[in-house]
Specification:
CATH superfamily of the largest domain: Aminohydrolase, N-terminal nucleophile (Ntn) domain
Helix content: 25-40%
CATH class of the largest domain: Alpha Beta
Number of helices: 19
CATH architecture of the largest domain: 4-Layer Sandwich
CATH topology of the largest domain: Glutamine Phosphoribosylpyrophosphate, subunit 1, domain 1
Number of strands: 24
Strand content: 15-25%
Strand order of the largest sheet: 3-2-4-1-10-9-11-14
Radius of gyration: 25 Å
Largest sheet: 8 strands, antiparallel
Oligomer: single chain
Bound molecules: 6-O-phosphono-alpha-D-glucopyranose
Low-confidence stretches: none
Distance between the termini: 11 Å
Number of domains: 3
Amino acid sequence: MCGIIGVAAQKGNVVPLIIGGLKRLEYRGYDSAGIAVVSGSTVSVRKGAGKIEHVVVAKGFEELNGSTGIGHTRWATHGAPNDINAHPHTDCTGSIAVVHNGIIKNYAELKEELVARGHRFSSETDTEVIAHLIEEELRRQGSFRHAFQEAVKRLEGSFAIAVLYSGEPDRIYFAKKDSPLVVGLGRGANFLASDIPAFLEHTRRVIVLRDGEAGWITSQEVHIENVYTGESVDVPGRVRTISWSPSMAAKGGYPHFMLKEIHEQPRALRDTFYGLSSDESLAKAAELLAGAERIYVTAAGTSFHAGLLFDYYMLRLAGRTVRAFIASEYEWFKGVPGRGDVLLAISQSGETMDTLKAVRLFKEHGARVIALSNVYESAIPRESGIAIYTRAGPEIGVAASKTFLTQALALLLLAGHAARISGRITRDEMAEIMSAASKANRLAQRAISVSEGVVRTVAKWFSKKGNAYILSRGIGVPIAMEGALKVKEISYIHAEAYPAGESKHGPIALIEPGFPVFFLLVDQHLKELKGNVMEMKARGATVVAVGPPRSEILSESDIHIPAPEAPPLLEPFTLTPPLQLLAYYTAVSLGYNPDKPRNLAKTVTVE
Ligand code: G6P
């Protein structure tokens, strides 16, 4: 996890740019932050524990001044979040400063070796070995460039690194393996960052770095080579202009990114629909699925819930069973997949380490892999045979919202095409699915408009509760799981989702008067849901019905959160937004910042 940024400018002070970039990267981790700049031929470092806003002031970041600098926002892995463990880390001489995202697996051996050679360490981090390793290599190699390369070659594990050296005050060295790093090419300044929104205000021209690539930036120059083979990279050939606008990454008048992103869902769905309607990769992926022996889907967190929707869509439309598994459990499948099998890996960031590991395992067994991601050329799409992209735009809120529904839409289209190719549905039926999918944006829009007012009031009541169940049936179950995850993540209320029929096999034991039980009203299962509502009512639960006004259920419910009518396969687009809003307004009622939930990071690049 963690976010890194580097700015090399021709003139002026880069400190405000680095602070701005860190604020945009804060979703990647926010337990400590730090900055280093070169002024004259001195490297100055300021850093400390706490949220960026606080550390910037407490540690006087703005007192620094320099035209080349690096910054870091941390999500602790090795060493507690405190001032000393905050990045940047320096070597013994204080002339090399390093920021790092990832984990250096062999840091203990390296540290032992360096300590034996007289290096003094001040932190408990794995990162500090990088600074000392470069220092050590610099004693042997004549040039910093070679010392940096040799040091990088000795690192095992994952890393995105940016390094300042007082002897080359206008340069930032970098290297990347298994953690994201992007170069931004601006006018009079070049950038390095973990993610594009960090510098989107300044440039849309980017190079997404690949594993094994290293090099340097100055304000005028970008040099990239493969650190292991020494091969140079054709920099102009790799530059892409991305279509995201800076306002897409700013709050746009909303109090929080999450609320903005919930409201952006209609736009995100429309873009995803039109983007994928004529997408060749989607067609190829559908063909692969249609011909697959076995189909697996894997992901983490919210993306896993989208994976469960895919399971549902494939069964309903293509008549195919899909084995869905949580990415971190990939080792279950050692020795299992074969050449005819297909894995679909879903990851909004494209960087989740567990999902990446699952992809690698399946590839080792000869299976074909399809990736669905929101981030162009991120690690998972790059390592997969076929990559499909949602068009949600950058998502800054740590808890996923718009990316979930865009994934759901992409997966509906994918399953529809696979069903058509395998002859399971007719051309007319496919046209119906396309026409229904083209309305997903309008359904989400109506769901937000009709539910938001009621949800605000319900959230005030709900914020006083400590637990909740969210129950449904069929397609409603993954939606309930996503809703419960949102509630847990940002309002810290313990919420669990269950198939409503399963609730009597244990969960119902916890029901006592006033216990909140939310029911998602999916049309195909109203009769059975009514039975489950009655069971909960009989034990004193406060029943909250979420969905269209179905009188037979509303007559037994205490509270109704309205949602519009939707065709069966499109219920995720109408039932998810009210739950996202519920989690959001509950968190706000409790005084929490929904954009930065405690202990969580948006992109989890550790196992
Ligand atoms: C983290 C985030 C979740 C996200 C999950 C998977 O846990 O906090 O919001 O759903 O990672 O992320 P991915 O980028 O792979 O979809």
